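Section 5.1 Outputs to date
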Amino acid sequence: MEVLEKDMETKEEACTAVSSESPKEVVEKEEQPLTEEEEGSIKEWNERKKKTPQSLVDIKEVCEEDGSKKTIITNSIGEEISNPDLFLSELSLATGSVNIEFGALLYRECIFASGSKDPNVHKGIINSLRALEPKDEIEGMLITRLLSIHIQSMNYLAIQSEVKTEKETDLYLNRSVKLMRLYNETLEALTRYRRKGEQRVVVQHVSVNDGGKAVVNGNLSGG
């Protein structure tokens, strides 16, 4: 916590230093026109962006003229989120992390898994993550993996219901089944982690033989 506070103080000082500096003379340079190849490269990049699901969260800090810092967060359609503190608190509860960058990373993974640009879908994802209540970063990783696997598995099931051939049906159904198995394994790992080594003794049957000796048939399992 002390390291984080020192880091925040350093950033504040940097902002103050920038704001206190006298403005430097700016030398304007004549812009060179883009070549046909450069224009084609930019056009191709913009086309690829349209086909790629955009992240819900883009976070950056800017220095104001008075030296203070401002956190700017934009959603998937480029709109600035009006209440950054509220959003960051939701992000922390959804991912189990107080680190903004780490929480945003986990969040993006779920967004990309959904393949959707709809802000309503993104809001549903953060609400689903919050409902599972991750307590730390490890639980956050396991829970975001659970949700991502579930989304992909359901997507494959939806696709297999629409394809025309038996081969395609088997292909997408098998993919969904494999992801369901991985989902169960991840859920088991989350359950074990939450127990954190807790041991359970399950007694199924106790019989007392002649001589007063007891025989216990059961098992001892560790978390």
